[in-house]
Design brief:
Order of helices and strands: EEHHEHHHEEHEEEEEEEEHHEEEE
Strand order of the largest sheet: 1-2-6-7-10-13-14-15-17
Shape: globular
Helix content: 25-40%
Radius of gyration: 20 Å
Oligomer: single chain
Distance between the termini: 32 Å
Bound molecules: flavin-adenine dinucleotide, magnesium ion
Structural class: alpha+beta
């Protein structure tokens, strides 16, 4: 019988993010294989190095289509579908703007308005041309760039879950720097902290208790810089080319698959609380927790998790049953 009171934690830094794996068995070799799997996907998908399958597509922009492996093709196809939903704030072709702003990387600054206007013309997701026959991707304009930063960690978290299941692990947790995916229910439920925006490491607004679910948080406080009293964060509005400006400090999504959590945090960011809650009424499989700048915690619903508020600076709105 597995002792679920004894947790073994393994950590690494991959994809510029702290990675945490929790198991209830002491198995360094398994942890090493999980980190190798993450590294394998990072090597295929990164745009922070000169070479990867995604960079091969980007380097060939305006020149020729590039055939990629099936998982990379499927992920790009999924990212394009999310990007071409009506009024979507998600855009896989946002790369030229991400590279220009450099938010979260050295050398970040507010670009001149004319640079943003020019780069916006290179970010139409409809122009990411997919060929299902040979699984190739073509960016027809020189300077176009795919960026999977808003979806790849979710995709990889799901692959880690599948791998752990295949290895016979019934209970475990992987955290890819804000993308949490869990297996099973150790001694009750998993307890996941909801980070307090712009606070010291470890400060929490509350906790979510879940089982067999993913919890993905996207916040403006993770990667940003301040200039003239204004915060410029890393979630860009594909309509304007500037960071999305609304009432939100963070959005958390509880869902079965982490890829959905990653996509929906960005979609929700673009909608704002009211429209987001209305949209989620038709999607009982996707639940959101919004943290607003005015210190409200708003739950769209909470059928698949239990939320406990710990910080009295915040006001809880929405059902907690
Ligand atoms: P999310 O909100 O899920 O995504 C925000 C990110 O998506 C932005 O950082 C940008 O890349 C992109 N984006 C911005 N606006 C939009 C939009 N409207 N639609 C779609 N996408 C948008 N960080 C490092 O510091 N160094 C690294 O070497 C590094 N390598 C990475 C390799 C991989 C494979 C991945 C997936 C990430 C890597 N990162 C690295 C982190 C990356 O730069 C982003 O910061 C991270 O993916 C953001 O994830 P998130 O969940 O915090 O935010
Ligand atoms: Mg995301």
């Amino acid at each position: 019988m597995l002792d679920t009171t004894k947790v073994y934690s393994y950590s690494a830094v991959l994809m510029g993010s702290p990675i945490l794996l929790k198991l209830f068995v002491n198995d360094e070799a398994l942890a090493a294989r999980v980190f190798r799997l993450i590294k394998h996907y990072e090597d295929l998908l990164t745009v922070n190095r000169a070479q990867s399958q995604v960079m091969d597509i980007n380097h060939a922009a305006g020149k020729h289509p590039v055939r990629v492996s099936s998982p990379v093709y499927a992920l790009i196809k999924c990212a394009k579908a999310a990007s071409t939903l009506p009024n979507s704030a998600f855009n896989l072709a946002i790369g030229p703007l991400v590279k220009r702003w450099r938010i979260g990387f050295r050398g970040d600054s507010v670009p001149p308005a004319e640079d943003i206007a020019r780069l916006l013309t290179l970010t139409n997701p409809q122009q990411v041309l997919l060929n299902d026959v040979d699984e190739s991707v073509y960016l027809p304009l020189p300077g176009m760039e795919i960026d999977l930063g808003a979806i790849a960690k979710g995709y990889i978290a799901d692959r880690v879950r599948d791998y752990l299941r295949k290895e016979g692990v019934e209970q475990g947790l992987i955290n890819l720097g804000g993308n949490v995916q869990t297996l099973g229910t150790p001694a009750g439920l998993w307890s996941i902290g909801l980070k307090k925006p712009f606070s010291q490491a470890g400060a929490m607004i509350g906790t979510l208790e879940i089982a067999d679910k993913s919890v993905v948080t996207s916040g403006v406080y993770e990667r940003y810089f301040a200039q003239n009293g204004h915060i410029y964060h890393h979630i860009l509005d594909p309509r304007t080319g500037y960071p999305l400006d609304n009432e939100l400090d963070s959005v958390t999504i509880v869902s079965a698959d982490s890829i959905d959590g990653d996509i929906w945090t960005t979609l929700m960011y673009g909608m704002g609380v009211e429209k987001a809650c209305a949209t989620l009424r038709a999607r009982p499989d996707i639940e959101a927790i919004f943290v607003t700048k005015s210190k409200e915690v708003i739950l769209s619903s909470s059928h698949h998790y239990r939320f406990t508020l710990l910080d009295n600076d915040y006001r809880l709105i929405g059902s907690t049953v």
